[in-house]
């Protein structure tokens, strides 16, 4: 069991339309909201709806799921850019017996016997 019933997951990552997302060129796009950086690392920009769906399908309840808007100021360059983060809190219900959805994939595979 990865997270006991009553456990909490805190999430903060890039949100849709963050400045970093808007700077990517079309050649860097791998899929919807999914991009590759010059160094080969991947960046995904989450929507509130998509993140909530992922966690709810895994048996979690949403406590907080909201965009946090910030401005990053570079005084030397004279730039002010909009930053968008998705900040969320999900709880695994106390009456939850087993995991479901994405988070239980590994444990369900481990439970199968090979003859």
Automatic annotation (TrEMBL):
Q: What domain of life does the UniProt record list for this protein's source?
A: Eukaryota
Q: Pfam families, per this entry?
A: Methyltransf_23
Q: Transmembrane segments in this chain: where?
A: none
- Presence of the UniProt keyword Lipoprotein in the record: no
| InterPro entries named in the record | METTL2/6/8-like, SAM-dependent_MTases_sf
User: Where do the segments described as Disordered lie?
Assistant: 94-115
Instruction: Tell me the keywords, alphabetical order.
Output: Methyltransferase, S-adenosyl-L-methionine, Transferase, tRNA processing
- Does the record bear Signal in its keywords? no
Query: Family per UniProt?
Result: Belongs to the methyltransferase superfamily. METL family.
Name the chain's protein. Methyltransferase-like protein 6
């Amino acid at each position: 069991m990865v997270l006991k019933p009553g456990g909490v997951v805190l999430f903060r990552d890039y949100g849709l339309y963050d400045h970093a997302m808007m700077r990517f060129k079309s050649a860097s796009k791998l899929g919807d909201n999914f991009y590759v950086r010059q160094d080969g690392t991947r960046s995904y920009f989450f929507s509130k709806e998509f993140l909530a769906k992922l966690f709810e399908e895994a048996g979690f309840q949403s406590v907080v799921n909201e965009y946090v808007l910030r401005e990053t100021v570079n005084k030397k360059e004279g730039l002010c850019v909009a930053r968008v983060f998705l900040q969320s809190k999900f709880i695994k219900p106390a009456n939850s017996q087993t995991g479901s959805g994405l988070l239980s994939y590994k444990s369900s595979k481990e439970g199968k016997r090979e003859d």
